[in-house]
Design a protein that fits this description.
The chain is α/β, with parallel strands linked by helices. The protein has two domains: 2-184, Glutaconate Coenzyme A-transferase; 200-441, Glutaconate Coenzyme A-transferase. The chain has helices spanning 2-5, 9-12, 32-40, 82-87, 100-103, 137-149, 200-210, 225-237, 251-258, 283-289, 300-303, 306-309, 346-355, 416-424, 429-441, and strands spanning 21-26, 48-53, 71-75, 114-119, 127-129, 156-161, 173-175, 181-184, 218-220, 243-244, 248-249, 274-276, 278-279, 295-297, 315-320, 323-325, 330-331, 334-335, 338-339, 360-364, 368-369, 379-380, 382-383, 401-404, 407-410. The strands form eight sheets. Strands 3-2-1-4-6-8 form a six-stranded parallel β-sheet, with helices on both faces. A six-stranded mixed β-sheet has the order 10-9-15-20-24-25. A hairpin with a 2-residue loop joins strand 18 (334-335) and strand 19 (338-339). Helix 7 crosses helix 8 and helix 8 runs parallel beside helix 9. It starts with a helix and ends with a helix. 50% of the residues are buried.
């Protein structure tokens, strides 16, 4: 079967029909040989859309595509392509992360017809491992294989075999019988740059966040300087026996494991295993994932399902944002109307932490920011209202705690009057009088 399906990337992408949606993956495991071969066909095809999330390959061939080309790009979590999304050359689709498998397999929504995978070499049982995640990619591929068996030739599964992909564990394997074409092409895995120095303000935020994490808690963290500050605070507080149930495996998680802080022994759901849906970080992280029985990847409709998250007692979810208004609305994905990022799984884990016995969700942010236009004048990230056009990621009815370097504000269950006071108390002192005046003008206090 392997020999029958082995071909070049150029041969494989000829299976892609006009008028189809093509899924190329999330973050690291984008099969560049297949994608590049498809992009080369742009002059001869019609109405094809490339769909992906977290674009961390800045030197890619699809950057030359735009709204007028025969192949278009839907970049669900713009990083390298932010300017292309803002300009309208690329588009993006707002989704709840845990809902992706249903949205992208259900005929009532927007099924992906083509699944392009990057996988490990096949094992002796005929299975390929997706390696760096399961996320929505495995459900999309399995659905495409099923629909093709039922006779719909728009659906196809193409796999690029890459010897650099770690063979991780969990529900992230696909059998050769469900793959239509195999391309052998090694590819360097994208890695994230080393994190910059943590500021004193971020260290303070990290210490406030760490106060919510007790021995035996299960954590969800993202990437960046604030999560790194939280991890450093764990070292300082000597917290023990933490568990992990988080959408993304990142270097912070590896560091906590190496330090003996994460053991997963006291998890109330899926103990002795760190649970993720995808991975992104350093080469050391990818090596850590390889054949590690203490780590499992599962599809995102399992990992990010709030009901599943809530099975973990004492779950502490820590995420970032771009802006908070005085009533507790959280904007984490745009600057005004300009798309900056994507909600990811923030709302999934905010809601999941609420379902957890003893659970807490935290939105952590520095109190101020420098305007992108320059000039040096500080702006407050806690504002009277979200900047016009700004997208509400976490509604005020769901937000639990907001933390800045000036303290902790309780939001969940608080009246508008009380949450306004709580938020003003953790803003930069320079803005407190102004925010209080704005609150009084609006009869909020």
């Amino acid at each position: 079967m392997y020999k029958q399906k082995l071909m070049t990337a150029q041969q494989a992408v000829k299976m892609v029909k006009n008028g189809t949606e093509v899924w190329i993956g999330i973050a690291v495991p984008v099969p560049l040989a297949l994608v590049d071969a498809l992009v080369d066909r742009e002059p001869e095809v019609e109405d094809i859309t490339i769909n992906h999330i977290v674009d961390i390959y800045p030197q890619n061939t699809w950057v030359k595509l735009n709204r007028a080309t025969n192949i278009k790009v839907d970049c669900g979590y713009p990083t390298s392509s932010r300017d292309r999304v803002v300009s309208g050359d690329f588009t993006m689709t707002p989704n709840r992360f845990y809902e992706l498998p249903k949205i992208y397999t259900d005929e009532n929504y927007r099924p992906m017809h083509v699944a392009m995978l990057m996988v490990t070499p096949m094992d002796k049982h005929g299975y390929f491992c997706l390696g760096l995640g399961a996320d929505a990619t495995l459900p999309i591929a399995q659905n495409a294989a099923r629909r093709r068996r039922e006779g719909d030739d728009r659906y196809v599964v193409l796999a690029q075999v890459n010897n650099q992909v770690p063979r991780s564990r969990g529900v992230n394997y696909i059998h050769i019988s469900e793959i239509d074409a195999i391309v052998e092409q090694d590819q360097d895995l994208a890695v994230l740059p080393e994190t910059t120095t943590i500021s004193e303000e971020e260290m303070t935020i990290g210490r406030y966040c760490a106060e919510f994490v007790k021995d035996g808690s299960t954590i969800q963290l993202g990437i960046g300087s604030i999560p790194n500050a939280v991890a450093q605070a764990f070292l300082d507080t000597h917290v023990q026996d933490l568990g992990i149930h988080s959408e993304m495996a990142c270097d912070t998680m590896k560091d906590l494991w190496d330090a003996g802080i994460v053991t997963n022994r006291r998890k109330t759901f899926m103990p002795y295993r760190s649970i993720f849906t995808f991975a992104m970080g350093s080469r050391k992280l990818y090596d850590w994932l390889d054949d590690n029985p203490g780590i499992e990847f599962h599809p995102v409709d399992f990992v990010n399902n709030p009901h599943i998250i809530g099975k973990n007692d004492n779950l502490v979810s820590i995420n970032a944002c771009l802006q908070v208004d005085l009533t507790g609305q959280i904007c984490s994905e745009s600057m005004g109307w300009k798309q900056y990022t994507h909600p990811g799984g923030q709302v999934d884990f905010v809601n999941g932490a609420f379902q957890s016995r003893g659970g807490v969700s935290i939105i952590a942010t520095q109190s101020t920011a420098q305007p992108r236009s320059g000039g040096g004048q500080l702006i407050s990230k806690i504002a009277p209202q979200i900047t016009p056009g700004g997208i509400i990621t976490t509604p005020r009815s769901s937000a639990d705690y907001v933390i800045t370097e000036y303290g902790v504000a309780k939001i969940k269950g608080q009246s508008v009057r009380q949450r306004v006071r709580n938020l003003i108390a953790i803003t930069h002192p320079q803005f407190r009088d102004e925010l209080e005046w704005e609150a009084r003008q609006r009869n909020l206090i």
